[in-house]
Amino acid sequence: MTEVYRPVGGRLLTPQFYFMGTLALIAGYFLVRRFVFGIGDVANLSDGFPWGLWITYDVVVGTALACGGYAMAILVYVFHRCQFHPMIRAALLTSVFGYTLAGASIVVDVGRYWNLYNVFLPQYINLRSVMLEVALCVTTYTLVLWIEFSPTILEAMKANRLLRLMRHLLFLFIGVGILLPTMHQSSLGSLLIIAGYKVHPLWQSNLIPLLFLITAVAMGYGMVVFESLYAAVNLGRRLETAMLARIGAIIPWLLIAWLVLRIGDLGLAGKLGLLLQPGPEPILFAAETALFIYAGFILLDPHRRVRPSALFWSALAVVLGGALYRFNAFLIAYDPGPGWHYFPAVGEMMITLGFFAIGIMAYLFFVKKTPVLSAHSQ
Amino acid sequence: MNSNRRDFLKLMAAGAATALAPVPAQARPPKTLAPGALGILYDATLCIGCKACEVACKSANQMPMDHDSSLEQAHGVRGVWDAPDDLNSQTMSKIKLFATGDGGQGGFSFIKRACMHCVDPNCVSACPVSALTKDPTTGIVQYNPDACIGCRYCQLACPFNVPKFEYDKPFPKIVKCQLCAERVADGDIPACCAACPTGACLFGPVTDLLGEGHRRLAFQPGESQDYPLHRLGSGDQRTARVTGYVPSIYGETETGGTQQLLMAGVPFAQLGLPPLGNDSRARLSETIQHTLYQGMVAPALLFGGLVYTVFRNAREGCEDPAPPADANTERQEDHHD
Asked: Does residue B103 lie in a domain region?
């Protein structure tokens, strides 16, 4: 199949773009404060809640939302579904910025950022640390994502010789680009194993790496569908409903596998009784399960999933369900002991919002100026 | 392409089998007590809550007093007292008071909170850059700020919420008790034990401290007994009336054992000490992670399978962009280049 990607074109500096720019500037103000006065000046992080919004949203949820490139690469390059190839650049674009901004958030969150390069130094690295695996994998994958995305930029620059060279080597990077997220998206879950009792028993599990990996892939497909519909409406392009419905059809099987593992694991560990206890945790568990069941129910039905609105809401439900699962495990159902509470401070939220805005600005820039979206749906 | 997928799935299966097969066999063995393990036995029944240990700790570690600025403003004073309500980034050792509502006999107890120097420490396993290490001889868990990146995973990992972080500083560090390692290296004892007037804080080799603890567990309430002061075998001792013990030593088995050991007359759960199993979470975490990454065999197999599959699929027409057979075919826009 021949396909050509084209820049969408059009004005870049729209009112929406300026709005996003303003959010980024506000974040800039709080970032300056964070680096001059310390983390405590802008964030509500504490010794009981050392990880807050930045780690949970920007890194743990953010990189899962950025799994579109990974999920689509599995589909196209492992299962050889070439018909989805036209969507891969848009998916990669979201992934590139999701991961790059997660990396930037880590620099903000980490207290001793000037020492960050120690994770690459053999005299310091601790091979027993789950965090080391995550740190190395996420940095390498961010680099790999830029390489995978580079043909788009090279095309826009008309650097043909480099482009040809890239095309010969790309298969290696695509291979690495599937391996690395498999490793670190599961390890992001494994990070919590060592926290023991602090993570609520409904979320603390030895299966947590697998549960995180499956939801990451499902969220990746969900994001591809959600974002494609959202961008098509906002950029005035044709809806690719038929193709999106076929991607959507994969999601229920992942969700079914996840629900079987999740509930089976709780049953085997004798934790199902916890669902009947008072407190917010059973409700949170029910909410994430309900979001997944709703999405799975709609996407399983071949007649419903071809309706753009049904597709849109079910994709959003997958993304929200996966995000809620991560928020519950890392933050909401996390209890370090009596006396500790956490709710993000304004500065913390503005920095997260600013990074989000930068991501959208970058998306608009690349979609409008470089060949990301396929031409035949223009 | 079906054969491709079959090849790939075979490799995946091989990878998964390699990763999952040795689960029971490869479980990481629990860590054992270091040969020269040093520690502290804190006996709450001897503690009078004078907090001399806290003052000595701050002075030995050059830690500032913990101000409560609202209290200071109310009283028009500044920097005259040190009153942290718990461990924090300026307080490595803390005596806390717990009281039950009725205030009846046995309803009160002090408890010392400080780094427990676990035999199998979660923080050491968690730290990506070995900023927290366990001394192979003394078993003291020490902190190296030059390595630390400030990720605070140690705070998440510690079951006792011991590592503290200087959130209010632009160049922050992790703060925690290091058992006065420098003083100990000079033949001295930790400042808290040197300061303690009642023998509630007792320094010594962990195995001997456990022996001393079990000797005390055999005491009957009401009888008079001799208690050593400052360090085991120092010869200093005092006689005190036994008030009775909860029949276990907290830290003998908890989370795989700790080198700070606690005894009290009130159940430990009431004193804010979490009920922990005999296995450290570090052991479980490393067992699961090692199972997946043993010798990097599973990732390497998966990587090989992926590269092979992607390479074949790309050659068969999924290349980027499409015309696969002829790499020289450029897109129309590029012709003039």
From this structure: yes
Residues B127, B8: one domain? no
Most A-contacting residue of B10, B111, B153 (CB-CB within 10 A), to test interface? B153
Cβ contact, residue pair A38, B172, below 8 Å: yes
For residue B88, give the CATH number of its domain. 3.30.70.20
DSSP 8-state symbol, B29: P
The pLDDT score that the predictor gives to residue B16 is: 57
B323 vs B328: CA distance, rounded Å: 9
Do B314 and B266 share a domain, yes or no?
no
Chain A, nearest residue to B276 by Cα? A197
pLDDT > 60? residue A104: yes
Residue B147 belongs to some domain of the structure: yes
In the predicted model, what is the mean pLDDT of residues A55-74? 94
Does domain A5-377 fall into CATH 1.10.1670.40? no
Assess whether B145 and B275 both reside in one domain: yes
Residues of chain B positioned with their CB less than 8 A from the CB of A79 = 5
| B270 and B134 within one domain | yes
pLDDT digits (tens, 9 = 90+) for A297-346: 999 999 999 999 999 999 999 999 999 999 999 999 999 998 899 999 99
Question: Taking CB atoms and an 8 Å cutoff, what residues of chain A touch B316?
Answer: 80
User: What pLDDT was estimated at residue A190?
Assistant: 94
Phi, psi of A331 (to 5 degrees): -135, -55
Q: Among all chains, which residue has been given the structure tokens 């420490």?
A: B121
The answer to which of A212-226, B15-29, B163-177 has the lowest mean pLDDT is B15-29
pLDDT, tens only, B196-238: 999 999 999 999 999 999 999 999 988 999 999 999 988 899 9
List the alpha helices (DSSP H) in chain A: 15-37, 39-42, 53, 62-65, 68-73, 88-109, 130-157, 160-190, 208-235, 241-248, 251-268, 281-300, 308-327, 346-369
Q: Tell me the residue range of the domain where B217 lies.
A: 38-279
Instruction: Give tens-digit pLDDT for B63-83.
Output: 887 776 676 777 776 666 667
Query: Residue B332: inside a domain, yes or no?
Result: no
3-class secondary structure, B134: strand
Question: Cα–Cα distances in Å, from B234 out to A280, B184, B186, B189, B202?
Answer: 54, 15, 16, 11, 10
State which residue of chain A sits closest to B320, comparing Cα positions. Answer: A167
In this predicted model, what pLDDT tens digit does every residue of B274-290 receive, in sequence order? 999 899 999 999 998 88
Domain boundaries, chain A: 5-377
Contact check, Cβ <8 Å, B129/A126: yes
SS3 B47: coil
Residues 171-210 of B with CB under 8 A from A: 171-173
Percent of chain B topping pLDDT 70: 81
Beta bridge partners of B250: B262
Q: Is the same domain home to B170 and B241?
A: yes
Higher pLDDT, residue A373 or A201 = A201
Token output for B223: 């009888």
Cis bond before residue B128 (omega within 30° of 0): no
Q: With an 8 Å Cβ cutoff, are A171 and B314 in contact?
A: yes
